[in-house]
Amino acid sequence: MTWHIDDRALESYVAGTADSASGSSAEQHLVHCAGCRERLAVLVPGDLLDRAWTGVLEDVQAPRPSLVERMLCRLGVSTDQALLLWTAPAFRAPWLAATALTVAFVALAATTSDTRGLVLFLVVAPLLPVAGVALAYGPDADEAYEITTAAPASALRLVLLRTVAVLVTTLPLIVVAGWLVPGQEGLAVTWLAPSLAAVTATLAASTWTSVSRAALAVCVIWGVLVVSVAGPGFASPTTAIAPPNIPWYLVLAIVCVVVLWRRGGRLHQLGGIS
Amino acid sequence: MISTSLNGVSKSFGGTPVLTDIDLDLGPGITGLLGPNGAGKTTLLRILATVLAPSAGRVRLLGQDPARPAQRTDVRRRLGYLPQELGFPRGFTPFTFVDYVAALKEWPDRDARHREVRRVLDLVELTDLSAKRLRRLSGGQRHRTGLAQALIGEPDLLVLDEPTTGVDPEQRATLRRVLSAAATDAAVVLATHQTEDVAALCDRVVVLDDGRIRWQGTVPDFVATAAGRVWLAPEPTLDALASWRTGTGQFHHVGPQPPAGAQPVEPSVEDAYLLMLGSAARTAPAVAS
User: Fold this and answer.
1) Inter-CA distances, A261 with A268, B135, B175, B274, Å
2) Is B65's Cβ below 8 Å from some Cβ in A?
3) CA-CA distance, B195 to B97, in Å (whole number)?
4) From the list A54, A79, A150, which residue is nearest B50 (CB)?
5) In this structure, are residues B52 and A273 in contact, taking their beta carbons and an 8 Å threshold?
6) According to a count of CB atoms within 10 Å of the terminal CB, is the N or C end of chain B lower?
7) Which is the CATH superfamily of the domain at B4-218?
8) pLDDT tens for each residue of A44-95
9) Closest chain A residue to B97 measured between Cα atoms?
């Protein structure tokens, strides 16, 4: 080597204040000059190397937060809550595929069949979020269920996060499917009220029994209700979601939310000590 | 350290007793839980991990009453738990899985959480594999991932259900090193079928059989219960509780009566365990069929 980097240039290189030409020149020289590398090593603060290595590990090991996580964080959700929400079963491909197929099937039945197809749609569509909630927590749905149970995270908060995940992934599909059923323009949204009531009723009932039993009971009640008010030969297939009935579903939903709020600590299947 | 204790604890499922009148005190150090399948080890660990409540008796974990929600949450903040069967969500890597559990354990700050995740993965020597899909890792590597999540936050109570099952000797040495380091300040309880782990790791041993504690005390005291009842003999015998041919061609003989030409040998934890359970089987009341 015929030259070496002077002290001031080396310091500015370490500090990151060197201009691009000087920095590139120093970098090229350092590759070939052991003496300057030794001088550089003395100047580099230890924590800088630690931070650089941590940054490398972070890039290699930690996956970049998903789009959903980043959006949630921008909305003010903490990173741990965003992570717990994003990892909910409702965001996984099998659930999304099963939901899409079911919705497509009942929408097709409602479109191509007589009033029986419409009744089938009305029975199934509001219950899909209930099924999602039933599968959102518990030993059958959560591979890490036992660890989840023994963790300090609030069971109620976790269940609500996963319910939100179910609603976010399921509702748009059903809204679109209902909108596509010809001659039933109101179908796209009118089932939302009974669906909301069914989901909150399932969660509230889960404070007494297991979520799967609660969901089953809600499904049976809703199915019997839709069929029984549809009249002989299903002459009035949409009676269950007729506008005069909507406020009752909303009242039921509010009551169930209050029950859930007051009894959330007794959620079965999650929270342990039962 | 604040104590963890069980007094008169029983647990039944549908009227079937699984644990009966368990008295147990746990302090810093490693307690090994031995017992045959169905002895109630997992149920006992699940009670210690706040997953199950006892049907009767008093449980204090780290000085807290887990039946009270606020105190239970406090215990869980200081608890590490590795269940017997641990599933991993599809698509997760060791890093994302441990990160997920750290979020469940209330580590809200992403940078601090990731530092902790890296620390525990480094402890179980999984740093190089931390970005690989869990389903592509070996059973032992997945097991170490399970242990890593239990170590988050340096828990005061570490409850481990068969932590060394399915891991090779090298990985087992790693796990032993990690557990012995953790036990310096924490109470560690591990259920295992590996008697050599108890001999290598544990300060105390508890033998469960048919839902009851048959023996508890220090490992040397446990081994001493087999003194004078373990032999090496040139021929096999039918009188032994257990007898097998060793690599030297002689027969390892565990039982009260020495066979002809037998020489006494130092007993092991396994010998003491076989004798204890063998005696139990022989003294159990006959049931009419």
Assistant:
1) 14, 38, 43, 53
2) no
3) 30
4) A150
5) yes
6) C
7) P-loop containing nucleotide triphosphate hydrolases (3.40.50.300)
8) 887 777 777 777 777 777 777 777 788 888 888 888 888 887 777 767 777 7
9) A144
